[in-house]
Amino acid sequence: MNNIRDSGFFLPEINSEMMLPFYLSEVAAGFPSPADDYIDKKMDLNEHLIRNPTATFFVRAYGDSMQDANIQSGDILIVDRALDAANNSIVIAVFNGELTVKRLKQAGNKLFLMPENKDFPKLEVTEDTSFEIWGVVTYIIHKASL
Fold first, then answer.
1. Fewest Cβ atoms closer than 10 Å to its Cβ: which of 77, 94, 105, 110?
2. DSSP the chain
3. What is the pLDDT of residue 2?
């Protein structure tokens, strides 16, 4: 894990607990609805966003190759190394020495790292490729735009 820490990744602070108010009433994304104005319980985001604390790290995305997957430059990705990558998983991978976030795609017996932006090429993983999956992206945190 020191290797991850030294490379600019950051690990979740699991020992701390930060309980924030959690409103029980839902927010309508369509037509407005009357809201209940009381808070019923507290919520710790670590409990909801991190399933495997010792295998989880955060990394900031840059670039726009995954914009159609709702990953924007500057977003923070929550990555779980304990999960097995499956076809169509969004993964953090090392491809020929470069760290990248892409969608893993299997087509027949070929393996690709697919961008989610038509302006970027797909990357085929071959026997000659230096390739390693570091983890599966489980959540994307980005700022609400104004």
1. 110
2. -HHHHHTT-B---TT---EEEEESS---SSS-------EEEEEEHHHHH-S-GGGEEEEE--SSTTGGGT--TT-EEEEETTSPP-TT-EEEEEETTEEEEEEEEEETTEEEEE-SSTTS--EEE-TTS-EEEEEEEEEEE-PPP-
3. 41
22-64 pLDDT, tens per residue? 666 666 677 666 655 556 677 788 888 999 988 999 999 999 9
Q: Is 122 a known active-site residue?
A: no
Residue in 65, 89, 118, 145 annotated catalytic: 65
Whether 110 is catalytic is no
